[in-house]
Amino acid sequence: QACLGELARATTAQLGSGWRVRPFGSISNGFATHSSDLDATCCRDPAAAAGARQPDSDSHTMLEDMVSALQEHPQFQIVEEVKAARIPILRMKFAPRAGLTLDVDLSFQNTEPLPNTQLLRAYSALCPRVRDLGILVKLWAKASGVSGAQHGHLSAYALTLMVIYFLQVEPDVKLPVLPTELFAGEPGIPSAARISWPCGLSR
């Protein structure tokens, strides 16, 4: 939360009040491990003020603007500027105090992961043991060297989807299927997805 707060303040100061920082991925969907980094994107606020920069602002220009804002920030260290990708990414380390660091990947106008994050968060909220099994599989895959899309393996997101599918088709568990159309990428869980489910997973 401290990191997101600092990013939000820097974004508002540099880009204007019409932009916000939205987290996505493991830290936001409930399936984070102790080694998870923070993935976030700087995107247009639907309720933006009239004077804010227009939503078609170039992502690469936004990256340059945020580099200017963050390179002097005492708690951020810029590690890499990924400019060649379709979606530019600013890789950083956030160090709120000595001995504590968090890897941060900040993208720009990258809203595609937000509905997926909201969907997984809804599943993780159905029962703590759903979350625990997802994390267990991710830890096993990492320890076994069979995770990571950059290494030619399934991503953490794909592994989590496999866990959810298994729980849905396992007759002794029967995890509910949440309609994907409920999830537009908003921060909270849709009220229609806040259902009561008698979890059949044993501890």
Task: Provide a descriptive summary of the structure in words.
Helix 1 packs across helix 3, helix 4 (113-126) crosses helix 5 (128-143) and helix 5 packs across helix 6 (156-169). The radius of gyration is 18 Å and the shape is globular. The chain starts with a helix and ends in a 34-residue tail after the last helix. The protein has helices at residues 2-15, 26-29, 59-70, 113-126, 128-143, 156-169; strands spanning 19-24, 38-44, 76-82, 89-97, 100-108. It has a 5-stranded mixed sheet, sandwiched between helices. The protein is built from 6 helices and 5 strands. Helix content is 36%, strand content 19%. The mean pLDDT is 89. A hairpin with a 6-residue loop joins strand 3 (76-82) and strand 4 (89-97). It has 203 residues and is an alpha+beta fold.
List the helices and strands and how they pair.
Elements: H1 2-15, E1 19-24, H2 26-29, E2 38-44, H3 59-70, E3 76-82, E4 89-97, E5 100-108, H4 113-126, H5 128-143, H6 156-169
Parallel strand pairs: 2-5
Antiparallel strand pairs: 1-2, 3-4, 4-5
The number of helices is 6
Instruction: Give the low-confidence spans.
Output: none
Label the structural class.
alpha+beta
Order the strands across the largest sheet as they lie in space: 1-2-5-4-3
